[in-house]
Amino acid sequence: MTDVLAIADHRRGKLRDVSYEIATAGRGLADDLGGDLHLVVISGTVDDFAAKLDRDGVDVVHTVSDGEEYNHDIYIQAIEQLTADIDPQYVLVPNSVNGLDYAPALAGRLERPIVTDTIGLESDGETLVATREMYGGKVETTVELEGPAVVTIRGAEWPKAEGTGDAEIRSFDVEIDDAALGSTVNGFEEVAGGDVDIADADVLVSVGRGIDEEENLEIIHDLADALDATVSSSRPIVDNGWLPKNRQVGQSGKVVTPDVYIAIGISGAVQHVAGMKGSETIVAINTDPNAPIMDIADYAIHDDLFDVVPALTEQFQ
Amino acid sequence: MKILVTVSEVATVEDAFEIDGTTIADQYLGADLNEWDDYAVEEAVQLQEADLADEVVTVTIGPEDADQTIRQALAKGADRALRVWDDDLADVGLLDPGTKADLLAAVVDDEQPDLVLSGVQTGDDSFGATGVALADRVGYQWAAVVNHLEHEFADDTASVRRELEGGVEELTDVDLPAVLTIQTGINEPRYASLRGIRQAQRKPLEVQTLDDLGIEGVDSALALTEMYEPESETDVTVWEGGADDTAGDLASLLREKGVAQ
């Protein structure tokens, strides 16, 4: 058991970036083990996907043509059967919303342990050493597990595999037990539409949990007006209904890359950082000097936003 | 319909803290009801208020200290609580999702709920895997990262929306019985009323040992071997001084960048 099997992620006809990143993570582990890297792409236009996934370092791309869109029961049955066939030491799954929907059940079927949301991986063949965060990114940890495992990897932690490889593309026939399909996808809906597109803004004044109360948002709007900037936010503000969904920056909201991103009272949970770390200049205003946002900020003020924000607004009036 | 809600007490960490070996030093740690589970409890209580659920039971893996958190869930409207604990569990360092799912599966076998609601993840170890692992062990259907649940269960199915990345939601029907992992924002969790807090003290909270659940010993698949503060990815410039000074520094930077010119 020296091979690695990595599962591609796609949605509505498009491969997601993590599919190329998981090829890099998988190649690294396969090198540790001295084995092959297998990718598998399940459902949809698999031949087209397989051609795109044939990048440097990929040995085999398996295609499973059953199903159109993601269905966890089809994924699990396909991966279970493929795992029985190629016997990989590690099964790598993207730590995406869909990855987290099937990987834990897959681990159960394979009778393997699972470790999720990893940001670094190494193996000596028997012991897997995985790096992952705890406490909302305040600390990093290493955890070890023995033997074959299912592992999910965080997006945007590994570079994308590049180039054109010479992978063998194999169509894999699975027997799908239709009686085991217990859920039906009826459609998709875009929920972050509306009049404002925060992805177009040059300057974002972005507010998080530190604002405490809805009425305090006024100082944020005042600052945005003074700077001729657009207001965006982290998730809790939208969860509370204080700003509409189209203002949310992050994994489940929008990815933004403004010239200047001013993070006010935002701790910098990984889901938020995923949506804004490409900003040209990041300024963080937060009382907590250890907040994860400080790890990606270019400029920081470790002070109370209720003092700093009005003072800043005044500078532009 | 009977609903089981998994409720975790999570460790919270103060802004400034120190690491002691592979844990955060005790004096910097607090405890709270896991944020995601708060939404799961609220969803269950709303289903009960809508006469769609007859009973809401919570289950927690944790020591006696967790009772204060469990009482919070009871004060918000859950009917009774189960707490799984055993001295054997205290000796296991980091409980992996599979081990947690094994313990919860034994409770599901006893309770036979129609619906299990579980937070998407916990705020401390953030595995985000226990709910789906549990579904597989008990042979239930499931959906992960649910941010809307229709309060109507036609043909023994639950109609949900799953929150995918990038502002897209997936509309899915799931056969019951099922486990749904609940995302924040699905509802507005209530604050417990004084009356609720008083009533919670009288609601049943039953402790179950591994023996009670028919489980012989536990062993985590994961060993926590190191903990450290992450290195900063950028060379951050920290502006010091009073708010007027730091606001002035930031204003200069913004003018340099051509903002508001």
From TrEMBL, chain A:
<dbReference type="GO" id="GO:0050660">
    <property type="term" value="F:flavin adenine dinucleotide binding"/>
</dbReference>
<dbReference type="GO" id="GO:0009055">
    <property type="term" value="F:electron transfer activity"/>
</dbReference>
<dbReference type="InterPro" id="IPR014729">
    <property type="entry name" value="Rossmann-like_a/b/a_fold"/>
</dbReference>
<dbReference type="InterPro" id="IPR014731">
    <property type="entry name" value="ETF_asu_C"/>
</dbReference>
<dbReference type="Pfam" id="PF01012">
    <property type="entry name" value="ETF"/>
</dbReference>
<protein>
    <submittedName>
        <fullName>Electron transfer flavoprotein subunit alpha/FixB family protein</fullName>
    </submittedName>
</protein>
<dbReference type="InterPro" id="IPR014730">
    <property type="entry name" value="ETF_a/b_N"/>
</dbReference>
<dbReference type="Pfam" id="PF00766">
    <property type="entry name" value="ETF_alpha"/>
</dbReference>
<feature type="domain" description="Electron transfer flavoprotein alpha/beta-subunit N-terminal">
    <location>
        <begin position="4"/>
        <end position="185"/>
    </location>
</feature>
<dbReference type="InterPro" id="IPR001308">
    <property type="entry name" value="ETF_a/FixB"/>
</dbReference>
<dbReference type="GO" id="GO:0033539">
    <property type="term" value="P:fatty acid beta-oxidation using acyl-CoA dehydrogenase"/>
</dbReference>
<dbReference type="InterPro" id="IPR029035">
    <property type="entry name" value="DHS-like_NAD/FAD-binding_dom"/>
</dbReference>
<dbReference type="InterPro" id="IPR033947">
    <property type="entry name" value="ETF_alpha_N"/>
</dbReference>
<comment type="similarity">
    <text>Belongs to the ETF alpha-subunit/FixB family.</text>
</comment>
Automatic annotation (TrEMBL), chain B:
<keyword id="KW-0249">Electron transport</keyword>
<comment type="similarity">
    <text>Belongs to the ETF beta-subunit/FixA family.</text>
</comment>
<keyword id="KW-0813">Transport</keyword>
<protein>
    <submittedName>
        <fullName>Electron transfer flavoprotein subunit beta/FixA family protein</fullName>
    </submittedName>
</protein>
<dbReference type="InterPro" id="IPR012255">
    <property type="entry name" value="ETF_b"/>
</dbReference>
<feature type="domain" description="Electron transfer flavoprotein alpha/beta-subunit N-terminal">
    <location>
        <begin position="21"/>
        <end position="217"/>
    </location>
</feature>
<dbReference type="InterPro" id="IPR014729">
    <property type="entry name" value="Rossmann-like_a/b/a_fold"/>
</dbReference>
<dbReference type="GO" id="GO:0009055">
    <property type="term" value="F:electron transfer activity"/>
</dbReference>
<dbReference type="InterPro" id="IPR014730">
    <property type="entry name" value="ETF_a/b_N"/>
</dbReference>
<dbReference type="Pfam" id="PF01012">
    <property type="entry name" value="ETF"/>
</dbReference>
<dbReference type="InterPro" id="IPR033948">
    <property type="entry name" value="ETF_beta_N"/>
</dbReference>
